[in-house]
Amino acid sequence: MKLTRAEKETVIRISEADMSWYIYTASKPIMNKLEKFVQPIEVRKDKDGIYAKCYELPKEYVRFVRPRKLSESEKARRTRLLTIDRNSKNGIQKSRGHVKNEIKIAR
Questions:
Q1: How far is CA 98 from each of CA 9, 31, 56, 104, rounded to the nearest angstrom?
Q2: Nearest Cα to 45, choosing from 73, 20, 26?
C-alpha cells in the first residue's frame, strides 16, 4: 500500500489513566526519531512492507516548550560562531583577526 503525503499522518494520544503517550505514525522520519527512544508496540505491514507503526512512550519523554525568540545581536553572534566552526572544519583557521587558508602538503 503506497500512502500519499496526506495519508502519512501522525496521531498522538495521551492516557491519563497510565500517563503514557500513544503515537501512531505512517511517517518514516517520525518513526526514525521515535526509535531512538522506544521500540514500536505494533507494526502494520502489507505486501509492500511496513507502512505504519505504533509506539508507547512514558509521560516523561514528552514536554512542550515555547520557541525562544533571539535578539538580533544574539542571532548575529550565533551566525558568527557557526561560520567560524564551519570554516575550521574546512581547513580555514582564524589567526589574529585574519582568515588564512591552511594547505597541507603530503610528502
A1: 50, 45, 53, 19
A2: 26
pLDDT at 32: 93
Q: Alpha helix locations (H) across the chain?
A: 28-34, 72-89
pTM: 0.59
- Of 84, 78, 86, the residue nearest 97 (C-alpha): 84
**Helix, strand and coil percent figures for the chain, each rounded to 5:** 25, 35, 40
Instruction: Please check whether residue 3 is in contact with residue 26, taking contact to mean a CB–CB distance below 8 angstroms.
Output: yes
Say how many residues make up the chain. Answer: 107
